[in-house]
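User: Reviewer 2 asked us to show a designed sequence for the structure in our supplementary figure. I'm pasting the structure tokens here. Could you produce the per-position amino acids so we can include them in the response letter?
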């Protein structure tokens, strides 16, 4: 009898009483509150009287950007992608707020596409189609034709997704043309960074996701309220990657906000302070920094230039039993106790199959499991086992009870750190990102935008 090595987070959490915060789709809210205190140059009164009843949050979501129209259909189809990512669990009020944010995103996207075309570096049609096919295959596990049908079914379209892809490619083309050539990193700077890295061996480094929302003195309060709403939605199960791709105004938006592996010293002081107290899987923010607000998600954590035990390759045997349909809790508890006693008596991995047969258990082996790919609750347990030892039983009546037996372990080699070229690329990316934010702000400032 064969079976898949099945280690579900659901089963582990039921046994160990721990639940991980899931980060899933996206939503954002607008707030009518104006920033106070920092608007002195504009001479805005503290309690203004409004003449008229125009509310920008209830107008129809269409706009003309430098003569190019963003239609209500464009907004609805892009919105449908986000609603689908949330499993459709977005309230009517939240959907309306989200619709206005989508419009703002489409305006930025249009400006980026227009600027790339003006600079003679537009996104090539072949690039767009190639990326679309890759997204269909890798992210959805479907052919482009199947994904097109899926998009139509949820109220979106292939054209909407391709437009987003076109905007991302155009923006990257533009940055390579107008920003990257003017970012100069000297050999001395790179060597100094490598020396600092070597000196920091053994200290912590962090893999962080960031959603950055730009803000001015005038709209700071509103942007902060929007950021708080995003945090609420993330805590309710929204995808951090999806939120970052749609709403982050940093150049890392195209990779889901992933900053890669960095040390706290590479972050602004405010972000470093927040990240330093986070554990993997935690969310922090909104944190005010120069130019706006950031929401952080700690993806992972490790020590600089030090082998991480979680990168060890484990050879495991899973020993499991299933419960017949209709099994009561009392019956399951009794059989689980018998299972645990039998497992405890197993004399090493070579004895696993023989003992499992006696109680009708199944044994499945896998020799190439990286410790960090297992549920967090199991990682420390397995890394503290000796060969031939097992984890405590875990599972449920629905999924059965199982243990993992450690049959071998290949520890990782000590990391040598980035070489000269890799360090230079990291430093260049950081400076390009900062200049890209300024570039987009300039495009917004100079744009002619008409709303309908």
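Assistant: Here is a per-position design you can include in the supplement:
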């Amino acid at each position: 009898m064969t079976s898949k090595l099945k280690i579900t987070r659901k089963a582990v959490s039921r046994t160990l009483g721990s639940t991980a915060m899931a980060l899933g789709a996206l939503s954002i809210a607008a707030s009518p509150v104006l920033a106070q205190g920092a608007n002195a140059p504009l001479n805005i009164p503290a309690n203004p009287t409004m003449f008229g009843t125009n509310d920008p949050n209830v107008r129809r979501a269409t706009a003309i950007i430098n003569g190019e129209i963003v239609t209500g259909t464009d907004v609805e189809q892009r919105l449908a992608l986000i609603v689908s990512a949330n499993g459709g669990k977005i309230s009517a009020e939240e959907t309306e707020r989200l619709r206005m944010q989508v419009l703002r995103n489409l305006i930025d996207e249009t400006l980026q596409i227009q600027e790339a075309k003006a600079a003679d570096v537009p996104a090539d049609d072949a690039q767009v189609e190639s990326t679309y096919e890759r997204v269909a295959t890798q992210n959805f596990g479907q052919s482009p034709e199947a994904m097109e049908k899926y998009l139509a079914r949820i109220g979106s379209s292939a054209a909407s997704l391709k437009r987003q892809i076109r905007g991302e490619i155009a923006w990257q083309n533009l940055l390579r043309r107008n920003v990257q050539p003017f970012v100069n990193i000297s050999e001395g700077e790179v060597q100094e960074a490598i020396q600092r890295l070597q000196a920091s061996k053994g200290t912590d480094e962090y893999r962080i996701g960031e959603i950055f929302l730009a803000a001015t003195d005038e709209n700071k309060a509103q942007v902060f309220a929007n950021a708080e709403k995003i945090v609420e939605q993330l805590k309710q199960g929204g995808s951090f990657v999806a939120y970052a791709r749609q709403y982050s105004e940093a150049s890392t938006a195209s990779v889901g906000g992933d900053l890669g592996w960095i040390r706290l010293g590479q972050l602004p002081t405010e972000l470093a302070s927040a990240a330093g107290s986070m554990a993997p899987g935690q969310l922090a923010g909104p944190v005010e920094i120069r130019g706006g607000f950031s929401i952080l998600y700690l993806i992972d954590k490790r020590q600089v230039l030090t082998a991480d035990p979680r990168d060890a390759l484990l050879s495991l045997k899973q020993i499991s039993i299933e419960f017949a349909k209709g099994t009561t809790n009392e019956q399951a508890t009794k059989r689980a106790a018998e299972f645990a006693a039998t497992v405890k008596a197993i004399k090493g991995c070579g004895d696993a199959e023989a003992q499992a047969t006696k109680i009708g258990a199944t044994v499945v082996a896998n020799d190439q499991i990286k410790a960090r790919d297992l549920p967090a609750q199991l990682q420390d347990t397995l890394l503290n086992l000796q060969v031939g030892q097992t984890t405590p039983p875990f599972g449920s009546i629905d999924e059965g009870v199982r243990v993992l037996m450690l049959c071998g372990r290949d520890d990782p080699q000590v990391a040598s750190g980035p070489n000269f070229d890799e360090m230079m690329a990291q430093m260049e990316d950081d400076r390009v990102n900062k200049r890209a934010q300024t570039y987009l702000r300039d495009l917004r400032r100079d744009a002619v935008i008409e709303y309908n």
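For the response letter, you might also mention the following. The radius of gyration is 26 Å. The longest strand covers residues 292-303.
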